Amino acid sequence: MPGDGFTIKSRIRNLLRSPSTKHKRSRRENLTSKVTLEKVLGITASGNSGLTCDPRSGLVAYPAGCVVVLLNPKKNRQHHIINTSRKTITALSFSPDGKYLVTGESGHLPAVRLWDVAERRQVAELQKHKYGVSCVAFSPNGKYIVSVGNQYDMLVNVWAWKKDVVVAANKVSSKVTGVSFSEDSSYFVTVGNRHVKFWYLDHCKASKASAPVPLLGRSGLLGELRNNFFCDVACGRGPKSDSTFCITSSGLLCEFNSKRMLDKWVDLRTSVAQSLSLSEDMIFCGCADGTVRAFSPVDLHFVCTLPRPHPLGTDVTAVTEAR
């Protein structure tokens, strides 16, 4: 019918008058540039490597998908670093001076990325892993970054990030869940399933080879605890700098001496232990049900159990007596 033909011609004419695809794309890009991430709810940390704190500023960093949340707990204010690769962040760690943050990620050909915390921009990256990064750590002298691949990757890389050179590399034979540098940056320790290993950097510093040298590793002498899952590690500080402290998932706090030998251990009296943090004066052990127990690093003497956090939704101002 004539009326139908007229309607079709009108529709075609209107379509030809509509803005071009290029103009639509530019409007969409302008809108994207105006959208900013204000607040992140939730956390995707799957282990101890997914949470770090800058001891100088008190800034806390944790992953939420491909975003690193930088939380100031005193002001309850967030800033964010968005991973440009859109890959999920799996591990992170602050530099000793708090100026930089190193992250590891999941997925195929993941990168170890270095970020400027103040400017929240990437300043360097390393792509030497194949299947995911489980742990990252800065050396106390700030010269090196160590990254450990997940159970499918198994690579350990020592990166002199200022020179953008991998100075040493090797492989692990177990799933690694924690890494810690010695106070003098001469070695670091990895822990995992039936795994405590000391990796030494002295020969790396002396080498002038352009290619990475084999990283020298020596297993800890576990004795009767050899079948345990060691879930976190912290090298000693101050007078106990020769010691290395580990925690097992079954609830044991262990101390290794300077000869890598398991010297002593204590029972944390918990069903599950998960994390470890220490200073020169105290060792804090994260246990089941929000329990945190404190020990002396001198002799592993029990000091106290910290008060448990209040349940969500509790009005702490209304509490009139201690429980």
TrEMBL record:
Q: Which SUPFAM superfamilies match?
A: WD40 repeat-like
Superkingdom of origin organism: Eukaryota
What processes does the entry annotate via GO biological process terms?
negative regulation of canonical NF-kappaB signal transduction; positive regulation of JNK cascade
Sequence ranges assigned to domain MABP1/WDR62 first WD40 in this UniProt record: 49-322
Note the Pfam families from the entry.
Answer: WD40_MABP1-WDR62_1st (PF24780)
Q: Which GO terms describe its cellular component?
A: cytoplasm
InterPro entries attached here?
Answer: MABP1, WD40/YVTN_repeat-like_dom_sf, WD40_MABP1-WDR62_1st, WD40_repeat_dom_sf, WD40_rpt
This chain belongs to which protein, by name? MABP1/WDR62 first WD40 domain-containing protein
Taxonomic source organism: Seriola lalandi dorsalis
